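Incident log entry.

Two folding requests arrived from the same account within the same minute. Monitoring flagged them as a possible duplicate submission, but the sequences differ. Recording both here for audit purposes.

Request one:
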Amino acid sequence: MTRLNAIDQIELLLALQQYEQAIDVAIDQFEDLKGCYYNHLLRVLEQSPETCGLLKVVIYRCLLLDVLDRAYTKAYTYGARYLKALSVLDAEINDYQKLDTHSEFEVYLNERHGRKRSFWALL
């Protein structure tokens, strides 16, 4: 029997309206999701209902890290939008569960990508 990858698991759970399980999979498989195709992550983001803020946080973080890790300067405007969206979601989320809080994530971004001035200038 073939096991579904993280994206396929989340999409299936969203289709079944099993939102809490989709969030759990996203959090538990965050490292795997960071290696997923950008377009697959965007598709999951589009499928995520407004009530799944924590799922959106995971996906936005994956998208942002992809842009910054690849130093894809043409996509920095998208990355800036993702970070702004994460700031908006932060106001709605009280419990990040196993994830770093938004402020902890921003510290991580500054430590790892603080020298990418063209990105930070967009904020």
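Request two (distinct sequence, not a duplicate):
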Amino acid sequence: MQQRRSLSRILFFVLCGFYLAWMLKPTIDWPNRESFLVEIINRTAEDIVSIELDFGYAEGQTQQRLLRLPAEQTRFVFLNHQPGAGFNVRVVYADGLEQEFCANRGDEARHQQLVLQR
């Protein structure tokens, strides 16, 4: 009897969660039309200490900093920025080498790649 009550309680909470998600779905707008996914790929044999992504938009300027991307690894990040406008990148490698450049200007894709190599 106790096990049956526990299953009923679990089923009740699961159904409540689905109902709340269904009710809130129309108000959720993330990621929105002005965002896109960037796949950052470290194609070097060197670990990356930090990656700074700077991008501007009509209301201001945003900076995102990613830390510790090991060699030959990939990380995904959403940018709340219009695809095609490009963004500035600053990469600091574990051996001290720094790279700065503008990336993906003109790329209108919703899933973009940023391949980091030396």
